[in-house]
Amino acid sequence: MKTFTYERARTPAEAAAAIARTPGARFIAGGTNLLDLMKLEIDTPAHLVDVNHIGLDQIAATPNGGLRIGALVRNTELAADATVRRGYGVLSRALLAGASAQLRNKATTAGNLLQRTRCPYFYDTNQACNKRQPGSGCAAIGGFTRGLAIIGHSDACLATHPSDMAVAMRALDAVVETVRAHGATRRIAIADFYRLPGNSPERDTNLAPGELITSVVLPPPVGGQHFYRKVRDRASYAFALVSVAAIVQQDGSGCVALGGVAHQPWRRQEADSALPQGARAAMAPAGGRQTD
Amino acid sequence: MPDTMPKNPVPSAPAIDRRTFIATSSGAVAATMLPGVSKAAGQSPSTSGAIPSAKTTLNVNGKQHHFDLDTRVTLLDALREHLHLTGTKKGCDHGQCGACTVLVGGRRINSCLSLAVMHDGDHVTTIEGLGTPDKLHAMQAAFVKHDGYQCGYCTPGQICSAVATLDEIKRGVPSHVTGDLNAAPLLSAEELRERMSGNICRCGAYSNIIDAITDVAGSRA
Prior knowledge:
heterodimer, A: alpha+beta, five-stranded antiparallel β-sheet, 11 helices, B: alpha+beta, five-stranded mixed β-sheet, 7 helices, 5 strands, globular
């Protein structure tokens, strides 16, 4: 691991300011993904700003009946929260389908959204990877692509987003709240949060450099039956080959989002509209095609 | 088969165990490599100047310890290399095997994927803090009784994880296999298997591990 300096921030504003004034600085919360990447020297921050003590660890009702989830709420606490279990079952299910209990105890809500791809070519520093090293090429194209993107990929990148939680957040129309160094806050709909790889796969999200996620807001519960189904190589503790988050109302209407198949959690209006005609109809407009 | 045992063990065999041997040997190897290492370090601008460190206090198994640590030191390495609590094991060092599982504030985490400096003021419990050879923790005794291991390397992590598993069920934390999210989770073998999936055992002692945990859970119920 490369050397780095370390500081603890006490407020979100202090954390954002610390990142802005220090070149090569990164936020660290749970660290379960970042430290792994640092050990492999895929990520080599010069300075870490520890955001674990800035207070964003509460789950609270919003005035309109929704839920504001602090960026630092651990995956275990979020999955086990009584309000989440009652009104947002798809979120509990998605969280519990991911990682191990040890990792969920550490991993945070914002960190889960921001985790990097598990594309094996991204992880292998001997291979060309446009996401890890822009302009170096993509060794995954023509390589072992079984777990990689089948929708929305580009000639530069086949990476998928690995999060289960984000797929549920996409189905629930979550909104990501952020703060920047100069104090400006903004709200980003989850639909606009993740990017497609295009020609700049090094950028996973539309966050500005140094922008800090403060919370994720869910609209009021929509009812219906909540599902999260995940297909993986073993019964537990593996990333999705494909996953489906679905909320289905009694009349058959609802929404569906896919995980493990694209650079972002994948949801399309056409698929939601076709849901009353059944799962096969809903999947037809998804636009999947086989990679070579 | 006693007749195949050597009748006269070499009397002058030096008293050396594996840990001493490895420590001595790797020290010698490191010494021979030192000139090259220091030259490379001297040429690299990123390592010029002092290595960044930070003051940290950890409460480990009820005892306060003060450190001034290289910021890169993981909680796992602080426990093993600085406090010499070698019960906690380094397996994959990437959060994939669970051998390094310890309890922080009563919650299980992978100590390999956490920086020691981020745990300033935290209370850490390792396998050494759960019980002693004279007074085993109920889970340790159950692992012995049910033969919940073969080589034993993953065992400290398995036991810490098992203790936390029962606590999580008691607190009503659901799992991937919990049928009704709004009901109290069951103490079934299916639940225990799912909840222990972050601890890999290459010897495959899984069924005995589940028996051990079930035994402890039953005696508490």
